[in-house]
């Protein structure tokens, strides 16, 4: 396992938890939505408004396909990134996929207080969010690790994710140490 990929429904805390987790591990942090906005030079809501969701998804998939982090990295995805099958395959190859699980009530509460999410905007926003939540949950559940974060602070969520992921990190370190020893022995011969 090389990297940690955070997935989950919009407003599940992927960016905040990912950034804090990377800091604790001393790893790099990459945020998909921020990469999209940087590359496009405009906000996600502007991309949706000017060019539509399909264009946003095209840009998103393009960026997923080009992700090649060198140093160990925590990658925070957007809520819809993992829904696309090709994105799913590419993200799964990067490392362990961790889903931050939250209840629909927490989602609705958080998106009401933030107008940056085009899919939650407008008079029919709540209904759209409820439908997306139902549709996407089965896909999120295919993540390698599911972590319940409802009611937890950012720090508590980070601790819970790390507790679940740590055995994989340890196994990975042991495997690379073994490979290094093997190479060193080979070089001695
Ligand atoms: C989306 C979630 C957003 C952003 C875009 C689409 C989605 O990211 O990528 O508005 O399809 O759920 P967050 O999950 O960070 O809100």
Topology:
Elements: E1 3-7, H1 14-25, E2 28-31, H2 32-40, H3 44-66, E3 73-76, H4 85-94, E4 95-101, H5 104-112, H6 125-140, E5 145-148, H7 154-188
Parallel strand pairs: 1-3, 1-4, 2-3, 4-5
The structure holds shikimate-3-phosphate (S3P).
Separate helix tally:
7
Q: Spell the H/E element sequence.
A: EHEHHEHEHHEH
Q: What's the count of strands?
A: 5
The largest pleated sheet is described as: 5 strands, parallel
Decide which structural class fits the backbone: alpha/beta
Side-by-side strand order of the widest sheet:
2-3-1-4-5
From the spread of the alpha carbons, the general shape counts as globular
Unreliable residue runs: none
For the residues shown, what is the average pLDDT? 94
Backbone CA Rg: 18 Å
Oligomer: single chain
Percent helix, as a range, is 55-70%
The small-molecule ligands in this entry are: shikimate-3-phosphate
Instruction: Determine the N-to-C terminus distance.
Output: 30 Å
User: Which range does the strand content fall in?
Assistant: 5-15%
